[in-house]
UniProtKB/TrEMBL annotation:
<comment type="similarity">
    <text>Belongs to the 4-toluene sulfonate uptake permease (TSUP) (TC 2.A.102) family.</text>
</comment>
<protein>
    <recommendedName>
        <fullName>Probable membrane transporter protein</fullName>
    </recommendedName>
</protein>
<keyword id="KW-0472">Membrane</keyword>
<feature type="transmembrane region" description="Helical">
    <location>
        <begin position="238"/>
        <end position="259"/>
    </location>
</feature>
<feature type="transmembrane region" description="Helical">
    <location>
        <begin position="83"/>
        <end position="104"/>
    </location>
</feature>
<feature type="transmembrane region" description="Helical">
    <location>
        <begin position="12"/>
        <end position="38"/>
    </location>
</feature>
<feature type="transmembrane region" description="Helical">
    <location>
        <begin position="213"/>
        <end position="231"/>
    </location>
</feature>
<keyword id="KW-0812">Transmembrane</keyword>
<keyword id="KW-1133">Transmembrane helix</keyword>
<feature type="transmembrane region" description="Helical">
    <location>
        <begin position="271"/>
        <end position="292"/>
    </location>
</feature>
<dbReference type="InterPro" id="IPR002781">
    <property type="entry name" value="TM_pro_TauE-like"/>
</dbReference>
<feature type="transmembrane region" description="Helical">
    <location>
        <begin position="110"/>
        <end position="131"/>
    </location>
</feature>
<dbReference type="GO" id="GO:0005886">
    <property type="term" value="C:plasma membrane"/>
</dbReference>
<dbReference type="Pfam" id="PF01925">
    <property type="entry name" value="TauE"/>
</dbReference>
<dbReference type="InterPro" id="IPR051598">
    <property type="entry name" value="TSUP/Inactive_protease-like"/>
</dbReference>
<keyword id="KW-1003">Cell membrane</keyword>
<feature type="transmembrane region" description="Helical">
    <location>
        <begin position="170"/>
        <end position="193"/>
    </location>
</feature>
Length: 307
């Protein structure tokens, strides 16, 4: 069953898109990530132009994250005060990122930038998370208790403008959360991601937040940053394909509810190592696609001429 996507200018199987949206929704509910780090490359792989994939995926993340955060709000695992601080930084970063995206699109370099950003960030974050998660899992199996990470980052506690975050049990400066939020906002605009694969490790290892609170808080911030990013892309770059977004949203909302339930049955270390493995797998596939010679040497040029 094919459907025509007017902005992307191609026909795609509806069930395939619905299935991709569902998979990303499950990830959103389980790990507290928007899932864009996986969905956007998957859209590349099925032929969606990178500029359209980035802008449209930001739209889909809003729905799957909203569905996931409702479940976490019921469990009281969302730090709303921390979420608002992250959101302020995220909106600033997203506004800057959209302008960079538009400038690079004008000179025809946005597709390469997006793919290189994915390879760089996914490779670094996936490797760090994988090594750390293995160590944590090994300690947990041997009966050792991992020391609370927030006490290691003494420089965080020395920064000014401190605020108490009761749900997370923290009393730290607002500057680290603001900076994390800004970085995630830039990534949301340029890469079409919620930024959870950056935010979740940063909230756990830099800010010292409990893993169960991190997931819901990350989703809360992602909703608003990606909604703002979608609006900016739609009005600045005109690259949001609503037909594509609606199909992905339907799958994402259903998947997020399933993922939230699945996540409740897994330990924090297991969740982190699964996320790390998926990040590394996507990174490897993107790197191979850039390095290997395409089977049709003229396909890139043809696509460029069509656009």
């Amino acid at each position: 069953m094919q459907v025509y996507l007017p902005i992307a200018e191609l026909s795609v199987n509806v069930l395939l898109l619905f299935g991709l949206g569902g998979v990303v929704g499950v990830l959103s509910g389980m790990f507290g990530v928007g899932g864009g780090f996986l969905m956007t490359p998957l859209l590349f792989f099925i032929g969606i132009p990178p500029a359209v994939a980035v802008a449209t995926e930001a739209n889909q993340i809003v729905a799957s994250s909203f569905s996931g955060v409702l479940a976490h709000l019921r469990r009281r695992t969302v730090d709303l005060r921390m979420g608002i601080v992250l959101l302020v930084g995220g909106l600033i970063g997203a506004a800057a990122g959209v302008q960079v995206f538009a400038a690079l699109r004008e000179i025809g370099q946005v597709d390469l930038l997006v793919k290189l950003c994915y390879i760089l960030f996914l490779g670094i974050i996936g490797s760090l998370m994988f090594v750390e998660s293995l160590n944590a899992l090994r300690k947990a199996r041997s009966g050792q208790r991992a020391p609370a990470r927030r006490h290691r980052h003494l420089w965080v506690h020395k920064l000014p403008l401190k605020m108490k975050f009761r749900t997370s049990g923290l009393y730290i400066s607002v500057f680290p959360p603001l900076c994390v939020g800004m970085l995630v906002g830039v990534l949301a605009a340029i890469m079409g991601v919620g930024g959870g694969f950056i935010m979740v490790p940063a909230m756990i290892y830099l800010l010292g937040m409990p893993t169960k609170v991190v997931v819901g808080t990350s989703l809360f911030q992602i909703i608003f940053v990606t909604a703002f990013t979608t609006l900016m892309h739609a009005t600045t770059n005109y690259t949001v394909d609503m037909m594509l977004a609606l199909i992905l949203i339907l799958g994402g909302v259903i998947g997020a509810q399933i993922g939230t339930r699945l996540g409740a049955y897994l330990r924090a270390e297991q969740l982190r190592i699964l996320l790390a493995l998926m990040v590394l797998a996507v990174c490897g596939k993107l790197a191979l696609d850039l390095l290997l010679t395409p089977t049709e040497l003229y396909s890139v040029g043809a696509a460029g001429g069509h656009a």
